[in-house]
Amino acid sequence: MKNTGTPCLAQAILTDPETGLRWAMRDYAAMVRGVLRRILPGREHDVEECMADVFVALWRNARKLQDQEIPVRAWLMVTARNTGINRYRVLHRREEIPLTEELIQTLAELPADPESDAAELVGALVAAMDPPDRDIFLRKYYLLQSSREIAAALGLSVANVNTRLSRGRDRLRRQLCEGGITHA
User: Fold this and answer.
1) Could you read off the pLDDT of 31-78 as tens digits, one per residue?
2) In whole angstroms, what is the distance from residue 144 CA to residue 38 CA?
3) What is the pLDDT, as a whole number, of residue 84?
């Protein structure tokens, strides 16, 4: 789970928050925006607010990221996704945005409270996966890409992507059960 860029970026944020966050936004703003736009299509104002929330969370969690050597990229993907889904749920309660079939499926697979220990453990378990499984999971569940998009991006067949997703979900379920977390 080590990422050589994580300690440097986290340290930069801790030493000089303005410069460190500027570096983080330079390197990761497009990715965070992409995650949020898939969850909140056509809601640019909400995307911008969520982006600000994600980078504030990065600043607040820089010490944890550094101490636990958590990869910044994976952490930002998880945080952006959770922040976007929280905003989506608020908007959906007010029935302001339509619910797509893929988003229904993704939301159904999430713990009731995205800030729960289960969500944090899932994020850590996914970040610890070996490539290409980690990339497949991040693209599917955090970037909300289709299996066809993932297959094209990674040079795999759609069947291979779907098989890896199925086996990976089974592995995650086992790891969550071993960690004392069961699905309600």
Assistant:
1) 999 999 988 988 999 999 999 999 999 999 999 888 888 888 888 988
2) 7
3) 92
Q: Which residue pairs from 16-19 have beta carbons closer than 8 angstroms and sit at least 24 positions apart in sequence?
A: 17/59
Please report where in the chains the tokens 């636990």 appear, as a residue. Answer: 68
Average pLDDT score over residue span 1-7: 45
Q: Whole-angstrom Cα distance, residue 181 to residue 184?
A: 9
Check pLDDT > 70 for residue 103: no
Q: Using only C-alpha atoms, what is the Rg of the chain? A: 16
Residue 138 near residue 126 (C-beta atoms within 8 A): yes
Say if pTM beats, i.e. exceeds, 0.85. Answer: no
- The answer to whether residues 85 and 103 touch, using CB atoms and an 8 Å cutoff, is no
DSSP annotation of 138:
I
3-state helix, strand, coil in the chain (%, to 5): 75, 0, 25
Rounded distance, CA 147 to CA 82, Å?
A: 21
Residue 74 contacts residue 123 (beta carbons within 8 Å):
yes
The number of CA neighbours under 13 Å toward the Cβ of 167 is 11
Q: Which of 74, 24, 72 is nearest to 52 (CA)?
A: 24
